[in-house]
Amino acid sequence: MSKISKDALNAINKKAGKRISESSVKKLAGTVKPSTLQSEAELRRLIKQVSAMAKVPVTESTISEIVGAVKKSGMNPSNMEALMKLMLKK
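Below the sequence we write its predicted structure tokens.
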């Protein structure tokens, strides 16, 4: 995976209120496949992994909102930066 932009990593750290390493983000992003965004179960699992990595609890209603937003967006599954921006809005 290519280097994560400093802006994206700074946004992740600011939103989480904690320092999350680039390697942690890359490791998690490496597990994401285009099918992840097509499967609600896989998308929910990804959101919970991000929540655990950031040590920020996420309610089921917020998870549902994120899932709905991803499905409605029709975003390109290979564009991880767009997914991160979408999740940071929540």
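The two ends are 25 Å apart (CA to CA).
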